[in-house]
Specification:
Length: 187
């Protein structure tokens, strides 16, 4: 019986491999680094887009909660963002309406890379209903500003009584109702 040439050979020509060579490992590392270099910017853009979508939704919640507060307690729009929150085990009142997430309605008013803001506008509602600690307002300005522009979000957002959400591509804070209404609406 003949054995094949490859199985008969022993000695200097046959060598056992016990792993990968340095060149093979360097090639694998280089490929991984190229994939990471391509993936990380896309991951960061996706994260910014998700934070912006969350900020818009939170601002929409504040807008809706303000209208609900106005119609429920007949005290105008809420005096501050804290009023829209509250502890869910307690009954809802005009001082703690329990209409928004506690992350939004308690300092530092941050959620998903954005700082939420709320300012009462256009004078106070009179007379203040019994049981309400502070008078509400005739208007409001809700804002969502990125904590770190370019990292947690790129655009800032705002909304006033018509419940139209506007955006600013610079990511800067929106200080007034007129500045908000001058910005392009979110489609």
């Amino acid at each position: 019986m003949k054995r094949s040439l490859s199985t008969r050979r022993t000695g200097k020509n046959q060598r056992k491999q016990h792993g990968f060579s340095l060149i093979e490992l360097l090639i694998v590392v280089a490929i991984i680094l190229i994939i990471v270099a391509i993936a990380i910017p896309n991951l960061l853009r996706s994260r910014i887009a998700a934070n912006e979508a969350s900020a818009v939704e939170n601002l929409r919640t504040i807008t809706t909660a303000s209208v609900v507060y106005n119609s429920t307690w007949n005290n105008g729009y809420p005096p501050n963002l804290d009023t829209l929150g509250g502890i869910s085990s307690n009954p809802a009142t005009c001082n703690q309406a329990i209409l928004v997430d506690p992350n939004i309605s308690t300092p530092p008013y941050q959620k998903s890379g954005y700082t939420m803001g709320y300012t009462g506008l256009d004078g106070t509602f009179t007379p203040t209903p019994a049981g309400c600690a502070a008078p509400g307002f005739l208007g409001y300005l809700g804002t969502a500003v990125p904590i770190s522009t370019g990292v947690t979000g790129q655009r800032s957002f705002c909304s006033t009584e018509p419940a139209i959400i506007h955006f600013d591509i610079t990511g800067s804070a929106i200080a007034s109702e007129s500045a908000c209404n001058a910005l392009p609406p979110l489609q």
